[in-house]
Structures are given as structure tokens and as C-alpha cells.
Amino acid sequence: MTDLDIAKSVQPKQIAEIAKKVNIPFDDLELYGKYKAKLPHTLIDEKKVSKSNLILVSAVSPTPAGEGKTTISIGLTEGLAKIKKKAIAVLREPSLGPVFGIKGGATGGGYSQVLPMEDINLHFTGDFAAIEKAHNLLAAIIDNNIQSKTYSLNIDPRTVKWKRVLDVNDRSLRQVIVGLGGSTMGIPRETGFDITAASEVMAILCLAKDLEDLKKRLGNIFVGYTYDKKPIYAKYLKAEGAMAALLKDALKPNLVQTLEGNPVIIHGGPFANIAQGTNTVMATKMGMSLADYTVTEAGFGFDLGGEKFLDIKCQSADLKPKVVVLTATIRALKYHGGAHLKELTFENLEALRKGLPNLEKHLENVLKFKLKPVIAINRFKTDTDAEIKVIEDFAKENGYKVAVADVWAKGGEGAIDLAKAVTEIVEENKTNFEALYKWERPVEEKILTIAKEIYGATAVEYTAKAKKDLRTITDLHLDRLPICMAKTQKSLTDDAKKIGRPKDFTITVREIEIAAGAGFLIPITGTMMRMPGLPAHPASEKIDIDKDGVITGLF
């Protein structure tokens, strides 16, 4: 059976029935049809948050074959329920760009999925649309102020970095010129479009503690400079109130369910290579208020989403995770060991062993945060017993817990061993999470710490533009913000072609962007694609809807 066949074979439970499992009163549900609902912020209980067990699911460096963090996250939640633990998964929302592009949907797979799959992968409850509109409202206000003859902040359009966003892969919009058509049409200037998941508004929504914090962060968005070199923030344009009004409903987390009828909160979805790559603080805290075990994920490998989850989100929201589940696949490790993409389904013990250093580095990184990792082998039908034994032997030799997670084929039943390994660490109660660096340290020191400790680099170099940006950050008194490194997800380095565990390399910072609203700095390394393009045959070609309204082809 395909993922879609499996999803169609299950009749979802009414969302009110799912809510009962975590003691949510029916009157607290804001229903979006039969199978999804918005949840009020009043469900967050900080005392319960402090007692709940937060589990982060991360992974080795991603490969074109895919590693399945979401599938593992859902399967682990099902597995915890199987061993009678009160558990909930808290995940990110899919972006339409990948859904219609190469990757496809992002609701898990096989018997480890969330429902209703079609709704979640498409418009869901409208959160992305609201973020898109709030972002573009600010863009319109900026251009309007530049054009205005009666109320102008004297903004120098050459310094404005705020682009527009759209939740579709469209390479033709990466660079555009606006304001053409004459004096009444605006001031011509060069700008462009990013994909919605890359918007700073998305990052802000995901870090905001409540509505007031959201408004404050929106007001702190750095827009550019006046002609006389004075900084301009969104609050100077009086934009934050209207932007927050557009985000009123998007601020509320969404409740859905797994194939096995367990609760899942899905909320927010920033990229992990240029943003923090995790769901909202409010969703995470809500999950921790409702369950004893909260399973969440962070985008791409541990060097990106995992590090940012721990250094940015956890420090910002005062969260203390108990365990890190490091997702690994046989085929990913063979790829990092030099096997060709087309040969990953064939047994290759030599390539697998050569790829183990990538797994080893991510495990070492977890330990740097004073946390204990569990290796989750996301099993595929082409994996052989001999290949699995290689990883199990590696784990045993190095003192790591490991479990085979056959969650695609078996759902929660296939994650019981993983669930037991996770609960053993939690019940030992010996973890004491510690961030990698303190925010008040100098910017260059924070960047070097991440590059050396997490990536394994020997040094960091700065271009002339990046050095100028460092001076600007100091002048604006923003040097105490945390670091959100923008780096390729395909490698521990800033070069996507260097797979495995490279050594003796230098990270080059091209420039440093300011995300003052989100509350972090973004050093840009390598080439960052903020508006992806569609492939020759995009996934959209397979998506259709029949006369009865049934959508097909989302996988």
C-alpha cells in the first residue's frame, strides 16, 4: 500500500474525541470542520510545562533520499501511547512550495501519519496565508511611505531589505523591480520575493510568547535607514498593530490527530537553513501543558534545526528538553559513505561504515548540550539485518542507546523499543540541559563557537561586507542577540558537496542579516535559496481532485 492508500483506509475520529484524550473541554475548541481545531492560549500552564518531558527529534545530515524525522516523531508518539504514556506530538506546518515542488507533503508516511493529510498539506487553517499577508502589508506600507509627500520618514529605498513573500516555488520572482509606470505608481526600486516559510514574520510567530510579545517583535522588525543614516523599524511606520490583527487566528495552535487517533499539535513552519526551523513556542508549551511526554522536531540535521532549537528557542522560552532522538537511515549513512544515490537500496557495508562518522559527529554534538541521545534507525524495507547490525554495534561500542523504528510499516507498534529507550533516559532524570553559548558574548565569538563545536570547522572568515555588518550590529546595540546560522543542510560545512564528516575546513560568512523582530542575527554562509524553483516535473503534476472532491497525488 502507498502512503495515500494507508491514509484513506483510516476513518479519522471527530476532533472533540481527540481533545478528550488530553482533557481539552469541547467549549475550548475553535472547530475547523470535523477533524481539526484551533486551541486557545489559556490552555498553556507554566507549572505543567515545567514538569512535562520534552523530547527533540533531530537527524543526521539530510540526503536526497530523505531521513523521515516527521515519520519518526509521529511513530514515537504512537509508541509512547502503546506503552501507556500520555504523549502528544508537536510538529511544523508544511509549506506549499515543497508540496507542489520536489519534496511533496510533510505529514509523515505509511502507518505513521497525521490526519487530515490533504488539509494539512494544503491550506490547513490559513496560518501561512495570514503570515504572507502580514508580511506583505509591511512591504506595502514601506513603499507607500517612500512614495508619500505628506508623511515620509525619509527612508532610503536602497537600504530596504524587506522583500515580499509567496508560498509557492517561483524562481522568476527572486529579483523584481517595483514602482514602474510613472510618478503615481511608486518609486522604482529593486526587490524580490522569498517563500513564506523564510519570512521573518514566520520566525516571529514561532518565537512569540503571546499576543503582546508578537506585537512587540513585529514592531522591532528592522526595515532600513533614512537618507541621513538613522535606522527605521516597523514600529516607526505604525505597522505592528495591523500586522498582529492579521495574525490573530494564526497565533492559535492547531489540533489534529495521528492515524492511531492520538493528538497532534501542528503550528508554524520556518525553514531551518535560514531560520530556526521549529514549531511555535506556544504550541510546544501547550503540548507540554496537556501531556507528560511532548515529542517535537527540528528541521534538517542536528547541526541546523537541533542547534537552533536548543540555543535560540529553548533559551528564549526557558525550555529544558530531556532527550534527543537522532534519526538515522541506512541509506543516508551509505550516501555519506560515498555510495551513489541510485545504489542506496543495495547492501553496502563498506559505504555504511564510511558514513558512520557523520552520525558520530551529530551524537557528539548532542552531548555538548549535556543531553543524552537515542539513535532511531528509521527502517526501510531495503535495509538488511547485516546493515542494521553495523549501527547497533557502533552504538554498543560507544555507549549510545539505539532502537530500530519500523514506524512506516507498523506505526506505534514499530516504535515500542524506541519509546522504551526514551522513557528510560527520562526516568533516570540525569540530564541537565545547557546551551552551547550565552547570548551576551561577542557576535564573532558566538559564530566561532557554533562553527567549531557543531560543524567541526577550524576557523571562520568574514568578507568585507560581513565585517561592515558586524560594525552595524554593534552600532544598533543588537550584538547580544543569538546566532541563527544560514548554512546548507547537506553538509556540516558551508559547501553542499562535502558530505560525511569533513575536517580542517573554514566557514566563510558572506554577510550578516538582522532579524531584530525575531530576535536573532543571521550570518549567511554559502549560497542561500530563499525562493526555490520548480523542477522539470513538479509534484503538482500528480495532484488532482475528482468529481466527488477527493484529492489525490499529495505523496
**Please, what is the oligomeric state?**
single chain
Euclidean distance between termini CA atoms? 12 Å
Our count of helices gives: 19
Query: What portion of residues is helical?
Result: 25-40%
Q: Please outline the major beta sheet.
A: 12 strands, mixed
Report the radius of gyration as a whole number of Å.
Answer: 23 Å
Could you tell me the mean pLDDT? Answer: 95
Structural class: alpha/beta
Number of strands: 23
Give the overall form.
Answer: globular
| Low-confidence region ranges | none
Strand fraction equals 15-25%
Topology:
Blueprint: H1 3-8, H2 15-20, E1 30-31, E2 37-38, H3 46-51, E3 53-59, H4 69-82, E4 87-91, H5 96-100, E5 108-109, E6 112-115, H6 117-121, H7 127-147, E7 164-166, E8 176-178, E9 189-191, E10 193-195, H8 200-207, H9 211-219, E11 222-225, E12 231-233, H10 240-246, E13 254-258, E14 263-266, H11 281-290, E15 293-297, H12 302-317, E16 323-328, H13 330-336, H14 349-368, E17 372-378, H15 385-398, E18 401-405, H16 407-410, H17 416-428, H18 443-455, E19 459-462, H19 464-475, E20 506-515, E21 520-525, E22 544-545, E23 551-552
Parallel strand pairs: 3-15, 3-16, 4-14, 4-15, 7-10, 16-17, 17-18, 19-20
Antiparallel strand pairs: 1-2, 2-13, 5-6, 6-13, 8-9, 11-12, 13-14, 20-21, 22-23
